[in-house]
Amino acid sequence: MTIGWYLAVSALIFAIGAGGVLVRRNPLVVLLCLELMLNAANLALIGFARMWGNGDGQVFALIVMVVAACEVTVGLGLIVAMHRRRLPIDVDEMRELQG
Amino acid sequence: MSTVIFFIAAIGAITGAIGVIVLQDPFYSVLALVGHLISLAALFLLLRAEFVAAAQVVVYAGAVMVLYVFVVSYVGREAAPLGQNPGRGATLGAFACGIALVIELFIAVLGSGLQAIGSDGAPYVAGFGTPEAIGKLLLTRFLAPFEIASYLLLVAAVGAVTLARRRGGLDEGIEGAPPTISVADLLRPRPLGTGTMAEAGGRVEVEQ
Questions:
Q1: Which letter does DSSP use for residue B126 in this model?
Q2: Between B160 and which of A30, A77, B73, B155 could a Cys-Cys bridge form, CB atoms 3.0 to 4.6 Å apart?
Q3: pLDDT at position B78, please?
Q4: CATH 1.20.120.1200 spans which residues of chain B?
Q5: Nearest residue on chain B to A3, judged by CA atoms?
Q6: Under an 8 A CB cutoff, do A55 and B129 touch?
Q7: B152 vs A52: CB contact, 8 Å cut-off?
Q8: Range of A42's domain?
């Protein structure tokens, strides 16, 4: 298969993730959709690494995975904090940023 | 052969991605994402990224998804109230946005005129993508990003613990703590037992 096919799959997955962020209201599912978008970027990075035949893109993908893990940890910590405070678990209800 | 594997894995990845956003129960969304990640690992293998594929399955489909399952079962599966789904207009708008994004990305990527996109990839040296090659790159050329990534993980771990712990201690929710998350919580004096194992159980035995 040529590299273009992988890039097409990556574009499709990215768009599905972006649509999910727009549609879903549960912050857990919004985080899952962010994962989808990061994974689509990873697929493109690894496709380009294969295209050039060097490993830099793969290292980049690994760093993206680290950043994604950090984002998940902090996001899930926020959701747990919201649950403890009995705030609604709904991104539409969380309108205000209060200090 | 690789064509067949590519199509199986690509269809699996796209089906899993659609499952994540279509399924109503967050628990099933997480399971769909696990399927998606495993299919994606197969695609990585086809692109000769062995180490990244292994890390994807072990770290992502394993550890991160376990974290998700824990939080889903802690927060509750009926987190989204029924009957309050976004209106048909919002769904259609998001669908249109997705289609527009796909078209734009196809034009941007496939229409870029790069010759190599139509090829199977450059010839690569033996050992491309193995743990050995990636490790050598991480410890020589990319040493600084590697160290910064480890520091970032440390910051995220400490931040998550700080965010998710019981801020008001054992009195939280009893005295009607304000329903906000604020930095001032870190500075308030805390009641007895805060920060101990007794807090996890929700009560503390006061020894006279």
A1: T
A2: A77
A3: 61
A4: 1-77
A5: B117
A6: yes
A7: no
A8: 26-89
The continuous run of DSSP H or E covering B6 comes out as helix B2-22
pLDDT digits (tens, 9 = 90+) for A13-43: 999 999 999 888 888 899 999 999 999 999 9
- Percent residues over pLDDT 90 in chain A: 49
CB A63 within 8 A of CB A46: no
What's the whole-model pTM score?
A: 0.83
Confirm whether A65 is domain-assigned. yes
Residue whose structure tokens are 């550890």: B63
In angstroms, what separates the C-alpha of A7 from chain B's closest C-alpha?
7
| Cα first-last separation, chain A | 53
Contacts of B81 in chain A (CB under 8 A): 90
A78 is a domain residue: yes
Query: How many structural domains does chain A have?
Result: 1
Contact check, Cβ <8 Å, B49/A73: no
CA gap A79, B52 in Å, rounded: 29
ipTM: 0.90
* pLDDT < 50: residue spans in chain B: 82-83, 170-171, 173-175, 208
Say how far apart CA B13 and CA A28 lie, in whole Å: 20
* Residue, of B39 and A82, whose pLDDT is higher: B39
CATH 1.20.120.1200 fits B1-77, yes or no: yes
Chain-chain contact of A79 with B137 (C-beta, under 8 angstroms): no
